[in-house]
Amino acid sequence: METALIIGGTRFIGRHAVEEFLDHGYEVTVFNRGNHDNPFESDDRVAHVQGDRTDDAELAGAAREVEPDVVVDCVAYYPRDVRTACRIFDDVDAYVYISSGSAYGAEVMPKREDETPLCDCTAEQAKDDSHESYGPRKAEGDRAVFAAAEDGVNAMAVRPCIVYGPHDYTERLDFWIDRVRNDDRVVVPGDGTNVWHRAYVEDVASALRVVAEAGDPGEAYNVGDRRMVTLEEMVELIADALDTEVEVVHASERELSIGDLSLDDYVLYRDYPHVLDTNKLAALGWESTPVDEAMQAAVDDHLDSDRDGSEHDPGRENEERVLGVLDTL
């Protein structure tokens, strides 16, 4: 039986990755600091090694203790993290780094792994922890993977777009589910045709395994829903999953300004379409979950949780002002 070491492994993508590898017959160990509740604490199939992945000695100790065949790195947020991991795990069958669609440095459609340029990353950005440096840091991590592969390390990268599904602590989708659940009229910024490619979390987890088993060292693989939906279609999918009906009300930048709102106040809105080409991953045998099934799972999990996405709420009272004026037009 092969052994998988999941660096992270208890919150969102990592949690689903653990389940994916278990379902496919792997022995699984998670390595993390133990700062979050461990959903596998009572599961004797999952071992836990506690440590800080930014401490080279502790990461190397985990490598010696586990002797993994596959390593999935869920929490490599800095290029140094990736370079260190590639050095420590230089003899594994597969080291899979979770990168991001944000690593792309050009607004083109679609974004292809072997064509679309990556973000540049300055020395300052490589150490910065701000949202603005996230894409450059992930891109530099990709370059670390490519360099390690040239030195013979079986290192690969997976680039998800916006990830959604059960246990999503970002609560981005939860905001929209909460809106549809509680309001008959839902304000959708723009004309509703905005596209920001999303990836169902279980499909990301399966992509990690497929790439570990069949990917080529030095390669990156995009992952996202094979059927993309617009923002308005996403709202309609949520309504279907809740077995309810809502009226979608489009609001332009000018109309939103009536309520002191802007397009960018809405989570999952993006002006230029963000679309990833997933054919390279599909060629390895990966398949995605139908979006209606994925949304149903996300909605069911939302209903079982206490998440409401309120941190992303632009303010219902502000929207009511917009709706009131639109009703008079």
TrEMBL record:
Domain NAD-dependent epimerase/dehydratase: 4-224
Gene3D superfamilies membership: NAD(P)-binding Rossmann-like Domain
Xref: InterPro entries: Epimerase_deHydtase, NAD(P)-bd_dom_sf
One Pfam family linked to the record: Epimerase
Domain of life the protein comes from: Archaea
Sequence ranges of Basic and acidic residues compositional bias: 303-322
Residues covered by region (Disordered): 303-329
PANTHER family: DTDP-D-GLUCOSE 4,6-DEHYDRATASE-RELATED
Family as reported in the entry's similarity comment: Belongs to the NAD(P)-dependent epimerase/dehydratase family.
Protein name: NAD-dependent epimerase/dehydratase family protein
